[in-house]
Amino acid sequence: MAIPSHWQWMQDTAGGFTKPRSAKLKVVDEAILQYERTKNSNDIWRIRNAFEDWKRSEGPTWDKSLRNRTGAVTRLNVELDKSADYRTYQITHFTMQELMALQFVAKERKKVIATIFEDKEVTFKAAKLKEQLKKSADEVKETAGKGVAYLKSIGKNAPAAAGPSASETVKKKMMEMVKAYFGVEGIEQLGSLAGLILSLLEQAAVSIPPVVGHIKDGYDLFTEWAKVGSGLYKQHNIAERQYTIDTGAPTLAFNALQVCLKDETKNEAISATRATTSFALKTGLAFVDGGAISGPVVGAANALAEFAHNLYLLGMEWRSTKAINKALAAGELDIRLFRTYPLMGCYLLISATLSDMIPIESFGTPGWMDYIENMKKHAFDEIYSSATELVEKSPWEISGLPKRPKGTTGGVFSSISKIFSTVSPLSDLKDLKDLPGA
């Protein structure tokens, strides 16, 4: 097996007129053409670096790409693993002292998670969700008031609730719903949130019964919403989901970020349920009087559904915050932290230096500085921006967390760079400091 000719490569990876070649794949094409002209071993590394860029752009399933329908991509990967293996090159071209220095760097980089997150606490940025909850509670009061006024204008009174008073029934049902959302046995376990939630439940318990009373089995709405909320929590809560996690902090951070980007944050992933709930209320409610006064009742019920949904979102974020703080307090400053909540990978990305994150396995190979610089420009900068946006949108914040500090592993590179001679493959190590963010 050998590097394919440019013509053969183009034929084997063609996708037709409807599938144009990506910019990253064209770089691989050009590198193969260059090697075909020169047969220079350094140009094999140019192919390798370009090919690795393309694989990253395709993701973990790069071998399932349309370009691999003939197996050409897999064959090239196998050949490059033999003729341009990063570790083999380092072993055969570095002195023992240089290899030990890189081993030291690799060891120090594993401490990045502990350095960044040790003694930190996750703070819940609940202000926005609290305001949404208050607003939806006011909407419940307003729409219920309009409903009651309408009912009075047509001489209708709410059907009496069996047993306890209507307000007591509503409050009890809503309390059970809240406990299901927050995963607690008592409201008092919510700390500072308890007072706010209790006051809003009291408000709803007074205003909503006259309207809910006209819905057949209306008091059971809260029980059903509690079941739905519990199911959604298990489905969407990151702490209860399984991930394939590789070793090494940088890889973990990227995997974590990809999960966050895919979900586009948990709130957005769940927001579609709001429309579904609203639609179900408008079309699926059964009314005590057969629907003669359904209009104003549906408006109030929709507002109540919005209030329940915001309570659920608040409960979900509260539970996740407790989980991540528990992990931090337990000293789980390793891959378990990312299993608990992948957004912490985003925090690592915006807090570590570029030197902490770049792939050390490519160091010293032909064209490695250009490879690193290209990777930073076309991959790291974009990922950093995405991570920053996700952190800013998150309902959490970590007090005292650095953002792109100058130091940490960067200092390790500076301290060992002096051992490399001017003819060493790693003589350019000192130039890493010239890359922004390094």
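Above is the first protein from milestone M3; the second protein from the same milestone is given next.
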Amino acid sequence: MKVAVCGDVHIGAAKSLGENRSDGTNSRFDDYEATLNFCIDHCIKEGVDIFIQTGDLFEKRNPSPEELNIADRCIKRLSAANISTFIIMGNHDYRRFGGTYTSALSSMPAKDYTNVRILLEPEAISVTNRYSERVNLVLFPFRDKRMYKGKTTEELSKMCESDILNMVDSLNPKYPSVFVGHNFFYQGSYNDFGGSEVLINPNTFKKCSASFMGHYHSFKKIKSLDNCFYTGSMERNTYGERHDDKYLLVYDTNTSLTEKIRLPTRDLCEIEIDVSGMNITDLGKELDLKINSLDLTNKISRLKITIDENMTGFLTKGKLKERLYDQNAHFVSSINVNPVYTKISRNLDPLKEGSDYAIFNKFLDIEFTIDEKLKKKILTAAKDIIGV
């Protein structure tokens, strides 16, 4: 049996990486839908039995109608393909009111689709495919510290771990067990993440055949256990993730192997051009040369130019943006000009002279290289002005 695990989707996370449209949507939403559909296409083509989304389906706790529609269209495809689909609640998917919480997930039409389950609470279940293969699932939505009664992060985390262990122990050990949750792993200190998050020790999953955790946006294998991973987010959400590859993970219960399917996420390109120290004659040529060498095709790009402060007036952000679009950039998120300020050090020795005329005479010697005839003319004029 094949179990696909898709990381945090964050539909609606434009983060200045897309163009706002007149209907209130953003071009970045298209990327999220395209990548999610790639995951679904792969699952259909490869005969995946189960699709689990790790939480944070949406960026905002109150997703817009179009954001809800994107999720609905994708989940409907999974339902129609007879893929058992589980969407679990992430920290972005719930709203807390006092001691209770609600989630926009519970009002989605998808909750009533065939083959689809939306989970706001932890649950241990078994799923059987058409070949009578069976797998145990422990599905563990985001656990807020306030969902437990305790004082320290360590106490609260161990209560959470105890809940997981009880769920795993309740399952039939004859069949493989897969855990999917939305919290951080404990990796040596309960002060990680400011001590404000429930942290789950990977050893909690020793009896599981595979364990996957959302919430952390970079893919990472936990070394202490086989088939234990942070899935990472589905898309690159910030420039800090521009070098990160994103994956759909597929665990095969028959081989006990987890396959990484690299996702075709849109590239985020950060361009840095340094033209400091250049004169006005060479500035334009150098900028053209460097911009013309860029391959920005279908990439979201931002540009940072380092330039002498006295040259900034020769740059126009609108023109620079046009030049990047000429290089086929999909979207230009920002143009940043970083002026280099030149510190001028003055020689104060002339101030040590006894008279204004002597100060001026010394100043000429230090600051200027002029012939003696011109200097005499200047000093003669200075005598008249100063009144020597």
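Note on the second protein: The chain has three domains: 2-262, 268-340, 349-386.
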